[in-house]
Amino acid sequence: MLENLRNNRSNFIFLLGIMFTVICFVLNGQPSYFWLLTVAQLIFVPTMVVDVQKVGKAIIVGMMLAVTLLHEWSNGLLANVLAGMYLLYTYYIAIQGVKRFLQRGFTNSAEFAIDMGLFYLALGGLWFFAYVANIDTGFSSLITWLTAIHFHYSACLLPISVGLLGRLHDSSGYRVMVMILLAGPLLVAMGIAFSILIEIIAVALYIFAIYGLFFVALKTKLLFEQGLLLRISYGALCLTILGSCLYVYSRVSGNFSIGIPEMLQFHGVINGVFFGGVGVIAWLMAVPPTTQRPFEFPVSQIRGKLRHKNIPHPGLVDALQDFVDTAKLPPVIPHFYEHTTSYRLLATAQWKTWFRPFAFLYQGLSRFLQQLNLPFSSKQIEMTGSIVQVDSVQDSRPSPRAWIRTIHQQTVFVAIYSKHTSNETTYMNIALPLPFSTMVGILYAYEENSQLHLTSGHDGDAGIYLAIGKNVMRLPLQEHFQIAAVDDKTLTARHQMMK
């Protein structure tokens, strides 16, 4: 039902955009190549945005009216106001992209591509405003306009289309192409503005990604008519990217037989008609539903500095048996987790070589926050501290307790331990309060070779997350604990953080 409603809204916006485009044509006989941006603003972008994000009709119609009226009043204060209205619309859409990202993070390449497409639209709106308002960008008026159209097509429409395709196809190759295509718009813009070498590299990467995208579209199961149109859309990119190669070659060689006018007639028109028009119609036929599901595990509501009544608690967990079969573990391991405060903790920290130059900056911040404040030296040092009860109403999770670790009376680590069960699996649910947010570690526990393992790299809820407000996003990090018994009173623990 929801998808049917969304498709009906998309069809309405598509037809409304055509109507406004016809009105613009009657109002103003602008050069033919300028229509490439107009149809993107009135038809392609609004339709694709509605396909992936709920946006009020009033907002979209207001944006369309602003663009339409600009064809009647293209100069002066009123033109600047109308262009400013369009700019605000693009910023509103960009904010929706940020909100989508904060609900999920980096866990889904297809949805991340859509997020970035929505976000990039704001850059297109900014360059369009600069063009209408005659702001000195350091480039000619035509180049300013070309940059605006670049961010509407390559940076907005293409990522959204690629994201929709990714809802139907996922592979390591697809994820690589997504990263290249998302970085491409900025690289191309930088190349045009600053360096022909950057432009050459960007075009080379674009060629690889676009032809790979066409191959993915050939492999993906689609409705016959939709598949045909979508492959025509991506095939048009395969053709026009060759024109970009010739244009870059002309700039390098000094032979400007292929210049901007020729690029507009070939590259612009084909992309506008076949990539933009045909591609939008293809997705109008059927918008694939997202495969992303919201995170449903409990998250600590504590933000910033932890406040507690200093009521002691003996262990990190009440019973390790809740997580693993403790009969397969040496008794010292469950005893440590259930009676943690009866143990001394000696620790060494080893930083990755590549991170050492940044460690001093990191330590300055972590020392101020009194969180994740690990020593820079690799010498063994004793950590002291306590475990205290935390108000479950304040935290919102069952039976929370905080392990506060210190070195030389300076707090280095505060972790609030709890648990939750999902699909018959019980996870350790650990929160690290940060300013206005909380880092969350959901750890899956298992025993192997008489050792206890806790890992975020497992199916289900396991993972490292950042909670900001009501939004929970997954971070591209993993951690793994390996706990082994040395004797009946001593154990070792190895904690690895990885990207």
What attributes characterize this protein structure?
499 residues; alpha+beta; eleven-stranded antiparallel beta sheet; 13 helices; 11 strands; disordered N terminus
Structure, described:
The protein has 499 residues and is α+β, with helices and mostly antiparallel strands. It is built from 13 helices and 11 strands. It has helices spanning 2-27, 35-52, 57-70, 76-102, 109-132, 141-166, 172-193, 196-219, 224-253, 260-285, 332-338, 356-369, 392-395, and strands at 345-347, 381-389, 401-407, 410-422, 425-434, 437-448, 451-455, 463-468, 471-474, 478-485, 491-498. Strands 1, 2, 3, 4, 5, 6, 7, 8, 9, 10 and 11 form an 11-stranded antiparallel sheet that branches. It is elongated. The model is unreliable at 1-5 (pLDDT under 50).
The count of DSSP E runs of length 2 or more, i.e. the number of strands, is: 11
The quaternary structure here is single chain
Give the count of helical stretches.
13
Proportion of residues in helical segments: 40-55%
Shape: elongated
Secondary-structure class: alpha+beta
C-alpha-based Rg, rounded: 28 Å
- What proportion of the residues form beta strands (DSSP E)? 15-25%
Question: How would you summarize what this structure contains?
Answer:
The protein has helices at 2-27, 35-52, 57-70, 76-102, 109-132, 141-166, 172-193, 196-219, 224-253, 260-285, 332-338, 356-369, 392-395, and strands spanning 345-347, 381-389, 401-407, 410-422, 425-434, 437-448, 451-455, 463-468, 471-474, 478-485, 491-498. It has 499 residues and is of the alpha+beta class.
